Amino acid sequence: MFRIIPRLEIKSRNLIKGMRMEGLRVIRNFDNLIDAYSKSADEIFLEDIVASLYSREIDFRFIEKISDQVQIPIAYAGGVSSKKIIEKLFNCGVDKVYLNSSLFKKIKLIKDVSKIYGSQSICALLQTKKIDNKWEVFADAGRNRTGIILNDWIKILINQGIGELAIVSIDHDGMYNGVDLNLIKLVNEMNLNIPILYGGGIKDKNDIDVLLKYNFQGALVSHILHFKKKDLTDLKVSN
To answer: Which domains does the chain possess?
Structure first.
């Protein structure tokens, strides 16, 4: 089933949004938005985009509050760096945990936690940008280069047993300019056998159709929803 997933980027309990992962600003009332999205979204994607960047402690109470508020699955990303943190997130009601920056130092974390919770609940968030004609993955909310090529990193993650990938185009993030077709084609050509989500630039149902055409299993959407350019029903597909 193709999933339409609101991506809620948070900082200090505020919903924020930027352009190309820069210029972050507070945009809307969080509680009202969660209530609205939870009525028609397939799941909620929470991302604390400064937790890794500034080594901030995860706000577990806030996550638990959101979990109590909604009746659909919740995925969380941001500052996840240990088995202990992952355990606390699951205890707070999170259904899936996305790893990113910590994996560049602790790739073994995937296997360690998959043995306990199952690979379907241990996922990876990839933020990528084309540099010198190569797709490179970034850490810390798209701020820091890793020097690692996207294709190579995806292969490593799959070999480690990752259950799902969420791939975000840095250059299209928050731009409302359509999906990054070159990135989508590149990922499709890898013929991956795990669920793949895409985020970045989605502006209408046509972009969702492109993702379906290239065998993606879901879309992370933020700008078009937060700024009320479209609602979730405008993007839904018949599965």
So the answer is: 3-235 (3.20.20.70)
